[in-house]
Amino acid sequence: MAESLKKEEEFNNLTKRMKNKILILTMGIFSIFWNCKDVKKEEFKVSYPVEKLGVIKAQYSDGSIAIGAFNRGYKNYNEKFNYPWSLKIDIELNPKNCSANGLPLEDESKLTNQFEDELVKNMSKISPVHNVGHLFNSNHLNIYLYVRDKAKINEWLQTEIKKENLIRSFTYEIVEDKKWETTESFMNGK
User: Fold this and answer.
1) 130, β-bridge pairs
2) Which residues, listed in sequence order, are joined to residue 54 by a DSSP beta bridge?
3) What pTM did the predictor assign?
4) What is the dihedral angle through the alpha carbons of 104, 105, 107, 112, rounded to the nearest 10 degrees?
5) Which DSSP state fits 171?
6) What is the SS3 string spanning the chain?
7) pLDDT tens per residue across span 26-53
8) Shortest CA distance to 161 belongs to which of 98, 90, 97, 113?
């Protein structure tokens, strides 16, 4: 009987050691997966192309004029696939501060450019953002951006557009554009 108890005790000890080994092995595997996940986040680096400023001037058939500036360094940007979401922000200008052709006067231009800078700076804290350029036309400023995380940017913008005392009201649209076709026409020229 003593031998039987001894064997049972050895079996229980062996079972406990096996369970501990399995637990340690399982924890090790999970830690490897978690570490790999963290490494992937750390490996992602935001890169920007060399700035090649291009100015856009256009006159439409109705006589209205558009003027803008775009970074044509994005024409051959190799990281477009990391930013598949095209974000167009439309800021409504104060018509009293615009000329008859719908372009902003100096004070309105400074104000809305500052507002654009603030929006981009705050969005960049949430998710990487590429400001490709902007276009003034018909009492509006259209800003063309590409973002990495649509959900986070959309959530933040939804709270921003509802704020009282905004410098200027704005709307936005986020669409999938993996090849950056939305801004392709602005990338040509000198």
Assistant:
1) 146
2) 70
3) 0.76
4) 10
5) E
6) CHHHHHHHHHHHHHHHHHHHHHHHHHHHHHHHHHHHHHHHHHHCCCCCCCCCEEEEEEECCCCCEEEEEEEHHHHHCCCHHHCCEEEEEEEECCHHHECCCCCECHHHHHHHHHHHHHHHHHHHCCCCEEEEEEEEECCEEEEEEEECCHHHHHHHHHHHHCCCCCCCCEEEEEEECCCCHHHHHHHCCC
7) 454 445 555 544 444 446 688 899 999 9
8) 90
124-140 tens-digit pLDDT: 999 999 999 999 999 99
The three-state secondary structure class of 125 is: coil
User: 101 and 19 in contact (C-beta within 8 Å)?
Assistant: no
pLDDT of residue 81: 94
Q: How far is residue 186's CA from residue 27's CA, in Å, rounded to a whole number?
A: 52
Chain-centroid distance, C-alpha 94: 28
**How, if at all, do strands 53-59 and 65-71 pair?**
antiparallel
Q: How far apart are CA 31 and CA 13, in angstroms?
A: 27
Residue 110 is which amino acid?
Answer: K
Q: Which of 117, 55, 46 lies closest to 77 in space, CA to CA? A: 46
Sorted by sequence, the CB contacts under 8 Å of residue 170 that are 6+ apart come out as: 89, 90, 91, 92, 161
d(CA 28, CA 31): 5
